[in-house]
Amino acid sequence: MLFEFDSDQRLWQNTVREVTAKECPSSLIRDVVDNDANPIQIWKTYVSLGWTELTDPDTAVELAIVLEELGRATDPTPYLATMTQFAPLSSEPIDPEQPGTAVFEGVSASRDGNGWRLDGTAHRVLDGDRAEKLAVVTSAGVFVVPAADVTATRSPIFDPVLHVAEVSFDGVRVGVDQRSSADPARAMDLALTGMALTTVGACQRVLDLALDHVRNRKQFGSLIGSFQAVQHKAADMHLAIERARALAYYAALTIAENDPRRRLAASMAKAAAGECQSLVFRNGMQLFGAMSFTWENDLQFALKRAKAGELLLGGAAQHRALIAEEYRATQL
């Protein structure tokens, strides 16, 4: 495994960063929040640039670069759910015109003639209200279901840009042709890694905004960035982000290499990202002071995206427990 970007990957990172800065500025995020603007044009840009084609495990690192930059930009599209949750569970290539998502729990499958019947309610489904297709994980296998067959209701959450929904299945009938051969456990590795990278990107945005603020804000006649306490907080944020980023890209590398450590790496990445956002959230708000609570401050969008990334698909404590269990199992 290579633990540094090569020249092509560095070029890719710069390209993605330039695109997001142009196509997904904070003004657009505010338009989505305040005026319910439709971000469909950004999604079309991602499609035209080939970002929705990064579905092969060999491109896991390139996909990771995109996910981090989109987390940094507070991406308002269903890209994360489509590429890291739906795509690895679908047995067919994704249709960029039809974003998708995954339902990992809450739905049961029972035999119904030559097919199956799906029942249950799934909570906190990322982009469940605007996905065109859903990959549903059940004890009988994975089924790809059209959104028209289910009832999805968007749930109000603290991140006004993020779509999280409650999805109900009331006797949804699926046939053999809708059953996917994908491995849910392997798909979850990518879902966790993608969420970790999104959280890291949001944390980086918080640090960027905080550094810009302390370099320009004066107090008692001096830039507050010259105060040692402020520098220590910024340094702690940087170290936490670098650690979480390293683990997230390590997880992406294990996916690209089909390394057997991928399950453990994904949980490590998710746990580190969750712990990172906790420190970055606290220090970022303190460095901004009372300004951090104002609606006019763009800091809120990155903070909320980072916090949502911690809560979705299990928090740091849950994944720390999984890591400990994995290590105990290897010692028996």
UniProtKB/TrEMBL annotation:
Start and end of every Acyl-CoA dehydrogenase/oxidase C-terminal domain?
A: 194-326
Specify the superkingdom.
Bacteria
One of its Pfam families is Acyl-CoA_dh_1
Annotated GO molecular function terms are: oxidoreductase activity
User: InterPro entries, from UniProt?
Assistant: Acyl-CoA_Oxase/DH_mid-dom_sf, AcylCo_DH-like_C, AcylCo_DH/oxidase_C, AcylCoA_DH/ox_N_sf, AcylCoA_DH/oxidase_NM_dom_sf
Keywords assigned by UniProt, alphabetized: FAD, Flavoprotein, Oxidoreductase
Q: Do you know which Gene3D superfamilies this protein is assigned to?
A: Acyl-CoA dehydrogenase/oxidase, N-terminal domain, Butyryl-CoA Dehydrogenase, subunit A, domain 2, Butyryl-CoA Dehydrogenase, subunit A, domain 3
The yes or no answer to whether the keyword Flavoprotein is present is yes
Protein family (similarity comment)? Belongs to the acyl-CoA dehydrogenase family.
Q: What is this protein called?
A: Acyl-CoA dehydrogenase family protein
Taxonomic lineage = Bacteria, Bacillati, Actinomycetota, Actinomycetes, Mycobacteriales
